[in-house]
Write a structure and sequence with these properties.
Belongs to the MCM family. By secondary structure, the chain is an alpha/beta fold. It has 28 helices and 24 strands. A five-stranded mixed β-barrel has the order 3-7-8-10-9. It has a five-stranded parallel sheet with strand order 14-17-20-13-21.
Length: 719
């Protein structure tokens, strides 16, 4: 270990601070326009690499050295003569004037113009005050770029006193409270003041005065704490937990306490993915607490820099602007089909379901006008037989979403999903600690094995799925937490396999009040089919052999491109033009009529109408448009119809091709053996058929002379 010459280091520090890059900030700090001064250690590295290494290894000591140099040079940078004074300035100035007056009374002046003596007396009075009381700035270090974030688990005892950078998820943020850093006492005997700098969260108050007056009078006056003359700073304690990907098998996630002071407070909130740089320190205790703790010391990180990442900082290329990215998407002709196929490409088929999951990632537009709130988050429930890749889809959505929480139904309680009442270790007060839904605010919460949850725990989700809030009234705490989250749930049938002869409620044992809150209920069944089974087996075999998806007609988009696309798409706020209102209303009335006449059809409630609007705005966002088009509404209704069609009873019905079903739909619309082609296509689209299937069916039956198309291509005429 090399012994440092601190006086020589202070000269180097002075050169760094007097560099032109810091001049403007020092002027603003000296004039009280700014409070925060952050020194980039990359600048120190260029000037003196050894000093940079010494700062990283002994950060607290060099923070004091930088502050000492700053105290010396800051008066030279003051430009403004009259600065705004706070209460502490007025208090200190009044005490200095009082001491000078008392000194003048004790020491008679030799001449009338002793200005120099007054100045010396003023400086002598100011030197009595601790530097922490006189400072009006905060000093922090920014770590060098060569220092990469490490998991909480890798912070060791050898790092005590070092500047470290960790990554993790914020699980709890305490309230911001005042922390005393300098305690001021007044003697009841001699009226002198005593100052006590406090370097930890607890201290032993002084009781007896040790001033010169009390010593001369041979008295020992009692000290009284003066809050008005003491200095307080903002204080906040947060808890950071390591990422689930960094937790070894068989271990529980580790967490660490982070102490934020001054301008570092209120930088992050529960659920944020963060990189935190700070000094790794032990907690100093005194008195009885130290006796109980013995040789064991708790540790914490004193925050110097907080960066909120939310899984995007390392994986999104920000060198390309939003306009350039949109132009690149248009040039490469990236359509919704390619985006949907890029979702879990290792899973075979399910194109419509992947489109729905893409819309869940993008989300609709929230409506918050005149006190009324309509959610824009899309909720989807996947139901089906075991082994149809429901959990794989949830896992991929959890990875691609910029903010997400993955949980399991049986391993989650109502408190774990919403919020828990905890006792603060510092203040002893009851505080709220957010659950999975709060941590996933403005993101996605993936809940697997949704049907395994207890009924009492599942009811906690009802308010979240519609009002997007969590109301708490526990332990004297009555508040409402934001939970603006999209829920993606996966449920297995109660009877092992899905029984198409029974309703959805009987198969998954979920109440209708909960099912109606899902915008899309998608059933994935495992039905034997020779062609599909052959293709699926080939696909699974290839994935198992090569650990990647088979080669497709086009290259699936990387996850970082998907995240950037979703991030830009969310910046658009599409509106529905008035001319499309009638189309939406008529389509909703048709869906209600079909649901009323068909006993096997799943229920259609007014929430279905809101689902059409949410899906339409999400489709417009994918087009990077601020206006919803008729094509978006048609596709939204087609996806809803496809989700409903996946649940309908099919076991007792003979195998009928899609072309035959389309022919039956169009024949029912025939009036005088004629049907308008546009109306027929719209009707079939609403019922869940794609444009390719409709066009193929029309061509097939035209070749079979079942009908023919008029010369103007506008009417279907039955033969």
């Amino acid at each position: 270990m090399i012994i440092r010459d601190y006086e020589k280091d202070k000269e180097t520090i002075r050169k760094i601070l007097l560099d032109s890059s810091y001049t403007d900030r020092l002027i603003k700090i000296s004039d009280r326009d700014e409070v925060l001064l952050c020194i980039d250690l990359d600048d120190v590295q260029k000037l003196d690499p050894d000093l940079c290494d010494a700062i990283v290894a002994n950060t607290k000591r060099y923070q004091q050295l930088f502050c000492q140099v700053l105290d010396e040079i800051l008066p030279d940078f003051r430009v403004r003569e009259n600065i705004i004074k706070d209460t502490l300035d007025v208090f200190i100035e009044h005490r200095i004037m009082t001491e000078m007056k008392n000194r003048q009374e004790r020491e008679p002046q030799t001449s009338g113009g002793d200005v120099e003596m007054n100045a010396v007396g003023s400086q002598r009075s100011e030197s009595r005050y601790p530097p922490e009381l006189m400072r009006r700035y905060e000093f922090y270090f920014k770590p060098p770029t060569t220092q990469k974030p490490i998991p909480v688990r890798q912070v060791r005892g050898k790092d005590i006193g070092h500047l470290v950078t960790i990554n993790g998820v914020v699980t709890r943020c305490a309230e911001v409270k005042p922390l005393m850093v300098v305690a001021t006492y007044t003697c009841d005997s001699c009226a002198s003041e005593t100052y006590q700098p406090i370097g930890s969260q607890s201290f032993m108050p002084l009781e007896r005065c040790t001033s010169e007056d009390c010593k001369a009078n041979k008295t020992s006056g009692r000290l009284s704490l003066q809050s008005r003359g003491s200095k307080f700073v903002k204080f906040q304690e947060i808890r950071v937990q390591e990422h689930s990907r960094d937790v070894p098998v068989g271990n529980i996630p580790r967490s660490i306490t982070v102490i934020c002071r001054g301008e570092m407070t209120r930088k992050t909130f529960p659920g944020d993915h963060v990189n935190i740089s700070g000094i790794f320190l032990p907690i100093n205790r005194s008195g009885f607490r130290q006796m109980v703790a013995g040789l064991i010391a708790d540790t914490y990180i004193e925050a110097h820099k907080i960066t909120v990442t939310n899984k995007t900082l390392e994986e999104i290329d920000y060198e390309m602007s939003d306009e350039e990215f949109i132009k690149m998407i248009e040039n490469e002709n990236i359509t919704i089909n390619r985006l949907a196929t890029s979702i879990a490409p290792e899973i075979y088929g399910h194109l419509d379901l992947k489109k729905a999951l893409l819309l869940l990632l993008v989300g609709g537009v929230d409506q918050n006008s005149s006190g009324m709130k309509i959610r824009g988050a899309i909720n989807i429930c996947l139901m089906g037989d075991p082994g149809v890749a429901k959990s794989q889809l949830l896992g991929f959505i959890d990875r691609v979403a910029t903010r997400s929480v993955y949980t399991n139904g049986r391993g989650s309680s109502g408190v774990g999903l919403t919020a828990a009442i905890m006792k603060d270790t510092i203040t002893g007060e009851f505080v709220l600690e957010g659950g999975a839904l709060v941590l996933a605010d403005q993101g996605i919460c993936c809940i697997d094995e949704f049907d395994k949850m207890l009924d009492g725990d599942r009811t906690a989700i009802h308010e979240v799925m519609e009002q997007q809030t969590i109301s708490i009234a526990k332990a004297g705490i009555m508040t409402t937490l934001n939970a603006r989250v999209s829920i993606l749930a996966a449920a297995n049938p109660v009877y092992g396999r899905y029984n198409t002869k029974k309703s959805v409620e009987h198969n998954v044992q979920l109440p209708a009040a909960l099912l109606s809150r899902f915008d899309l209920l998608w059933l994935i069944t495992d039905q034997p089919n020779k062609d599909n089974d052959y293709k699926l087996a080939q696909h699974i075999g290839y994935v198992h052999q090569h650990c990647s998806e088979p080669k497709l007609d086009f290259e699936p988009l990387p996850i970082k491109v998907m995240r950037r696309f979703i991030q830009i798409a969310k910046q658009f706020n599409p509106i529905i033009p008035p001319e499309l209102t009638d189309d939406i209303v008529s389509a909703y009335i048709d869906m209600r009529n079909v649901a009323r006449n068909d006993k096997n059809m799943t229920f259609t409630s007014p929430r279905t109408l809101l689902a059409i609007l949410r899906l339409s705005t999400a489709l417009a966002r994918i087009r990077f448009s601020n206006v919803v088009d008729r094509v978006d509404i048609r596709e939204a209704m087609r996806l809803i119809a496809a989700s409903k069609a996946s649940i309908q009873e099919q076991e007792d019905q003979p195998s009928v091709s899609k072309a035959s079903k389309i022919f039956q739909i169009i024949s029912e619309m025939a009036d005088n053996r004629r049907v308008e082609l546009a109306m027929a296509i719209d009707r079939c689209s609403v019922l869940g058929y794609t444009n390719e299937e409709i066009e193929s069916a029309i061509e097939e039956f035209e070749e079979n002379n079942m009908w023919h198309i008029s010369y103007d291509k506008g009417t279907i005429i039955f033969v």
